[in-house]
């Protein structure tokens, strides 16, 4: 008995001692957006497979959280890259600068945001105005701002199916929600509402259901309910093409080609930011950037396209690659 | 009512009037109802447990097997330099091998799809096999390589519903030009098949549109996907796309293979089905026990993703947690129960420990982030930091359970020990603690099991991360089983759904194993006394 206690306490002491001796880092650390996470992890794995470097550790912290960690400073306790589903904000760039961090911005591709339903339901063609009319907290009826009265899609337009409006979407903390609000709600927002309460309010009477961050859950719920629609990134539609169909927005279907060409109106750019100060100190950073910006990765036929990343147009890819490989920092 | 009846043998009932009897009856009825409701509740929860487990198990089973394709690989000296393996183009070798199986496949898109049948992890596995000497270099070797996730799912029957195979009485005539084929059938059975497949009929022409099942005609060494079928004099004519023109294993007898799931409703094209079928017909594919899933680290490719990294991470984290929480928790319990003076200070401590046991786990995560990561600068994502955080979370549970166990030891033991001259410390360590140990261990098991399944606090300290390498120590980046499940559940690739369920089974297995070890330990201590 005493031996047992002695042994466990000895182990505890040993563990506590080993805390002080964290070895110098030879592994890239990446934080940031959960939207970019699936793509960055794929690149990280390829870098590891090359056998020259350890596979980078990629952490999904969200864009904002990632920026905070990334801009926190220089040194091996701070990450080397951050993923972002939006460009860096001015405030974040200032914080970076204040801590001696020079980010290298690389736009890696697009992400289409799709409104989709089960193959068992009707495929619809919506305009941004119709989506706004279905989901906004307040809408304009007969020149007056009123609380959204629409219960069925056919209340908005006779041509739409006579089913209850039920849309499953991400919560306000999500980057996808931000992008959806910016690209659909704010664009289709009538002036009267902009003056009244801004355009970002989504109705809370049950027509819009916050389904959490897990998009697979939304996919399952759509399968179970043919009348419901879901909002998520293109990669989930792509991978679940057997179960789901995307709604056209403004007459354009959410397909790989339409998003890549910019015809599909609801897409946003995805970024990664590299820490210039760490290049050279942390092994493999340049190779990681090269791998990410190679045609084999982010090109139209690359492996990231298989994962659902929509590639940039060729000219953009070339200029982004040149900047990235030259390690051109922001504001330098 | 004049007569009284004994209700039980040998005793005379006290309940002599009707009202009393009715009350008694009602009481018995209530008791019976309660008993039934209780049994019902147990049965209901048992039913739910069975449903839950059977769903997980049926979902998980496919993940424990995996399909491989055996390909002749050119590992001659020109291709492979054993001295300098990193210069070898392993992807090229694998690609050439799969392309060599179907030399007639042309066009960038098609060749790309063909290469996609084999897992992107195959080149790495090949390199490792060469390094370890499992595969020897030189000439052409038959090597089994893992298939891609969708090919694997297809062979497991999870992508497309198989509609069977209809043999044709007579071989049709096929005239093929540039991938398009004109087919003449000598009977009309194909028209019926097209109707059943859901073809749309217009002016006597049956069009197999995107909503119809796929009809794949195998004849004359070719495989043709039928597009339009029309009844003609004494037979039928059809047009189609040639999917494979040099199918070596197509049997001489003409047949139509039906794939019930329409092509538009699956992420696996007819062409890919034809390729995989052809490989299977040649006996090149093989289903094996999925070693990759059990013994490798995480991966972004479902077919290459394994659980081992998370298992090791969990084990390391639990070790740290146990090494910290058990001695500290038991020591605290002993002091508080046996030695501490009963005053206001100890009362406050006691209340706080009880409160801490109910604090949501994420709060411990925040504390760990502030104290261990930011202040002591422990490495992020490491089992060390995770173990410390989980130890904090487990401590109150262990302390409370240990104190209860110590309190349950009868005072006579203490008094007897003190009576024969033992000191207070001797009394506690030689007599009370060993008696309380089974109870303490039970508390520890409960605490550890809770810690093993915990995800939320680890989120804050960076253990929700994509880590491919299996952790080598307490400070190397790691993830744990519940976090791995959490991440896999979020990936879009359908093959990860089975992996998620399989990982849940592994976690449950881990839990059962832990409990078993603890039960054995507990029993041994019990026997000593």
UniProtKB/TrEMBL annotation, chain A:
Pfam family, one: PBP_like_2
Keywords carried by this UniProt record: Signal
Keyword NADP: no
Domain PBP: start-end pairs: 19-295
InterPro entries per the UniProt record, alphabetical: PBP_domain (IPR024370), Phosphate_ABC_transporter (IPR050811)
Record PANTHER family: PERIPLASMIC PHOSPHATE BINDING COMPONENT OF PHOSPHATE ABC TRANSPORTER, PHOSPHATE-BINDING PROTEIN PSTS
Protein's UniProt name: Phosphate ABC transporter, periplasmic binding protein
TrEMBL record, chain B:
Domain (ABC transmembrane type-1) ranges: 311-517
Subcellular location: Cell inner membrane; Cell membrane
GO molecular function, one term: phosphate transmembrane transporter activity
Membrane disposition: Multi-pass membrane protein
SUPFAM superfamilies: MetI-like
Keyword flag Transmembrane: yes
BP GO annotations: phosphate ion transmembrane transport
Pfam hit, one: BPD_transp_1
CDD domains the record matches: TM_PBP2
Keyword set, alphabetical order: Cell membrane, Membrane, Transmembrane, Transmembrane helix, Transport
Transmembrane segments annotated in the record for this chain: 36-57, 307-336, 356-378, 384-406, 458-481, 501-521
Major location (coarse): membrane
Record-linked InterPro entries: DUF3333 (IPR024573), MetI-like (IPR000515), MetI-like_sf (IPR035906), Phosphate_PstA (IPR005672)
GO cellular component: plasma membrane
NCBIfam families referenced in this protein's UniProt entry, alphabetically: 3a0107s02c
Record family assignment: Belongs to the binding-protein-dependent transport system permease family. CysTW subfamily.
PANTHER family in UniProt: PHOSPHATE TRANSPORT SYSTEM PERMEASE PROTEIN PSTA, PHOSPHATE TRANSPORT SYSTEM PERMEASE PROTEIN PSTA-RELATED
Protein name, entry field: Phosphate transport system permease protein PstA
Phylogenetic placement of the source organism: Bacteria, Pseudomonadati, Pseudomonadota, Alphaproteobacteria, Hyphomicrobiales
């Amino acid at each position: 008995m005493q031996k047992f206690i002695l042994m466990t306490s000895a182990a505890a002491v040993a563990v506590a001692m080993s805390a002080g001796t964290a070895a110098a880092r030879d592994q890239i650390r990446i934080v940031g957006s959960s939207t970019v996470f699936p793509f960055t992890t794929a690149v990280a794995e390829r870098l590891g497979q090359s056998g020259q470097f350890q596979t980078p550790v990629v952490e999904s912290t969200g864009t904002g959280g990632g920026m905070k960690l990334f801009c926190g400073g220089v040194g091996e306790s701070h990450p080397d890259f951050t993923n972002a589903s939006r460009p860096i904000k001015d405030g974040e760039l200032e914080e970076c600068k204040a801590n001696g961090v020079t980010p290298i911005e690389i736009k890696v591709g697009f992400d289409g945001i799709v409104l989709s339903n089960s193959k068992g339901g009707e495929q619809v063609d919506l305009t941004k105005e119709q989506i706004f009319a279905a989901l906004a907290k307040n809408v304009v009826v007969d020149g007056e701002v009123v609380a959204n009265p629409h219960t069925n899609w056919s209340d908005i337009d006779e041509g739409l199916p006579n089913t209850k409006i039920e849309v499953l979407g991400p919560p306000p903390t999500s980057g996808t929600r931000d992008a959806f609000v910016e690209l659909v709600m704010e664009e289709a927002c009538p002036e009267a509402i902009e003056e009244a309460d801004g355009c970002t309010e989504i109705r809370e009477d049950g027509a819009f259901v916050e389904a959490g961050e897990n998009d697979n859950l939304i996919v399952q719920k759509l399968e179970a309910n043919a009348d419901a629609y879901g909002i998520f990134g293109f990669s989930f539609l792509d991978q679940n093409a057997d179960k789901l169909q995307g709604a056209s927005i403004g007459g354009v279907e959410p397909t790989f080609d339409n998003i890549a060409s910019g015809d599909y109106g609801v897409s946003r750019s995805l970024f990664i930011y590299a820490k210039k100060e760490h290049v050279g100190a942390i092994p493999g950073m340049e190779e990681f950037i090269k791998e990410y910006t190679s045609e084999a990765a982010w090109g139209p036929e690359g492996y990231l396209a298989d994962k659902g990343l929509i590639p940039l147009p060729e000219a953009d890819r070339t200029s982004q690659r040149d900047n990235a490989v030259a390690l051109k920092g922001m504001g330098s | 009512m004049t007569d009284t009846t004994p209700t039980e043998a040998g005793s005379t009932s006290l309940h002599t009037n009707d009202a009393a009897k009715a009350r008694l009856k009602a009481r018995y009825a209530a008791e019976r109802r309660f008993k039934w409701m209780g049994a019902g509740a147990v049965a209901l929860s048992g039913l739910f447990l069975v449903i839950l487990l059977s769903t997980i198990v049926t979902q998980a089973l496919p993940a424990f097997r995996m399909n491989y394709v055996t390909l002749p690989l050119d590992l001659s000296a020109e291709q492979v330099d054993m001295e300098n393996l990193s210069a070898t183009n392993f992807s090229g070798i694998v690609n050439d091998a799969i392309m060599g199986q179907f030399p007639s496949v042309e066009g960038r898109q098609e060749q790309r799809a063909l290469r996609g049948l084999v897992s992107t992890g195959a080149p790495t596995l090949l390199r490792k096999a060469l390094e370890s000497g499992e595969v020897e270099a030189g000439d052409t070797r038959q090597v089994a390589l893992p298939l891609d996730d969708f090919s694997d799912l297809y062979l497991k029957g999870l992508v497309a519903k198989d509609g069977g195979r209809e043999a044709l009485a007579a071989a049709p005539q096929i005239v093929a030009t540039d991938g398009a084929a004109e087919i003449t059938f000598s009977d009309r059975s194909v028209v019926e098949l097209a109707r059943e497949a859901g073809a749309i009929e217009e002016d006597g022409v049956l069009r197999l549109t995107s909503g119809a099942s796929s009809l794949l005609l195998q004849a004359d060494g070719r495989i043709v996907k039928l597009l339009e079928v029309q009844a003609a004099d004494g037979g039928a004519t059809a047009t189609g796309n040639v999917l494979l023109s040099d199918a070596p294993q197509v049997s001489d007898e003409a047949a139509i293979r039906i794939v019930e799931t329409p092509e538009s409703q699956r992420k696996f094209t007819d062409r890919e089905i034809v390729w995989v079928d052809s490989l299977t017909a040649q006996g090149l594919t093989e289903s094996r026990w999925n070693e990759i899933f059990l013994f490798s680290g995480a991966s972004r490719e479902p077919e290459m993703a394994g659980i081992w990294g998370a298992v090791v991470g969990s084990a390391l984290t639990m070790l740290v947690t146990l090494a910290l929480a058990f001695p500290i928790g038991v020591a605290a319990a002993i002091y508080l129960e046996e030695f501490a003076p009963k005053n206001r200070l100890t009362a406050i401590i006691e209340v706080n420990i009880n409160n801490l046991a109910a604090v949501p786990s994420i709060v411990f995560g925040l504390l760990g982030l502030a104290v261990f990561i930011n202040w002591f600068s422990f490495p992020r994502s490491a089992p060390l930091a995770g173990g410390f955080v989980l130890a904090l979370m487990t401590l109150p549970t262990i302390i409370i359970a240990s104190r209860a166990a110590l309190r349950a030891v009868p005072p006579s033991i203490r008094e007897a020990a003190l009576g024969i001259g033992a000191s207070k410390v001797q009394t506690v360590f030689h007599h009370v603690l060993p008696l309380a140990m089974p109870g303490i261990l039970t508390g520890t098991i409960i605490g550890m099991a809770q810690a093993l399944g915990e995800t939320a606090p680890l989120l804050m300290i960076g253990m929700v991360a994509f880590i491919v390498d299996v952790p080598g120590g307490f400070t190397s980046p790691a993830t744990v089983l519940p976090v791995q499940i959490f991440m896999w559940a979020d990936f879009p690739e359908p093959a990860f759904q089975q992996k998620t369920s399989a990982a849940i089974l592994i976690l449950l297995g881990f839990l059962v194993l832990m409990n078993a070890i603890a039960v054995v330990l507990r029993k041994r201590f019990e026997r000593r006394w």
